[in-house]
Amino acid sequence: MDKLRVGVFKFSSCDGCQAVFLDLPQLWDYLDFRYWLLGRSKRVLEPLDIAFVEGSVSTQEEAEFIREIREKTRVLVTIGACATSGGIQALRNFKNMREFTSLHPEGMFIRVLDKSTPVKEHVKVDYEIYGCPINPQILEGFIKAILYNKKPVIPDYPLCMEYKLRGNVCVMDAYSIPCLGPIVKAGCGALCPSVKRGCYGCFGPCKEPNVESLINWFKGIGLKEGDIISLFENENAYADEFRKVLEGKVEGSQD
C-alpha cells in the first residue's frame, strides 16, 4: 500500500487538533508527513494527497496561505471547531474589531482581518471533522477509509443518540440541566452529560438542528435570555445555526 502524502497545517488555533495525530502511531507507517508543524522541522509545501487544516483564517497571510495549500492538495480536510466554524476567536466577529485593538497600548500594530472565519469561506473544503478537539477515533476512521478507497463516515447526528446508547437518562428531563445535546453533533462520547453536566456544544450544530424548540425548553425551565445566549457563545458560535441565535434571528416562542 502506498503511503499517503499528507500535510498538517495550523492557522489561528491552539494546536490541540494537530496534536491528535500523536495519538495515532498505528497509522504513521501509512502516512508520509510532508508538512507538520509538530512533527517535522522541515516545512516545504509540496503536492499532497491530503491536507489537514487546523485553525481559523484570521490574518491576510493565512488567507493567502490557505489558497496556496488548496492549489497543491487533492483532498482538503478541516479539523476542529476553529477550522470548521471559526473557533473561540470568532466571537470577536460579533463586535467591532476596533473595540479590542483600542484596549491594547500599541493596537495599531495588530494586523488581523475584520473577522476570524472558517476555512470554507476561503477555499473549497472536501471534508470537515468537527470537535474541540477532534476525536482520535473519528480521525483514524477517516484516514483508514481514504487508504482503502472507501467513503469516510463522519457523525452528523445529535449527541443525544450517543448519550442514550450509553444507557444514561437525559440530564434535561431528569435534572433540568441546560444541555445543547439535542442540537449538537455526536463524536465526543457524550462526556459531559455522562457526568451530569450539560453539553457545551464542542462539536457544533448537527444536521438540521431544531434550535427554536430547544430555546423554548430553556425558557420553560426559567432561563433568561442572557443565559440562553451565553450557551451559544462557545467555540462554534460562528457556525450558521449558532450564529443566527446570537444575531437574534432564532428565538423561542414562549414568553
TrEMBL record:
Signal peptide as annotated in the record: none
Residues annotated as domain NADH:ubiquinone oxidoreductase-like 20kDa subunit: 14-144
Single GO MF annotation: oxidoreductase activity
InterPro entries referenced in this protein's UniProt entry, alphabetically: Hydrogenase_assoc-protein, NADH_UbQ_OxRdtase-like_20kDa, NiFe_Hase_small_N_sf
Superkingdom of origin organism: Bacteria
Keywords tagged on the record: Oxidoreductase
UniProt cross-references to SUPFAM superfamilies, sorted A to Z: HydA/Nqo6-like
PANTHER family linked to this entry: COENZYME F420-REDUCING HYDROGENASE, GAMMA SUBUNIT, CYTOSOLIC NIFE-HYDROGENASE, DELTA SUBUNIT
The protein's name in its UniProt record: Coenzyme F420-reducing hydrogenase gamma subunit
The organism of origin for this protein: Hydrogenivirga caldilitoris
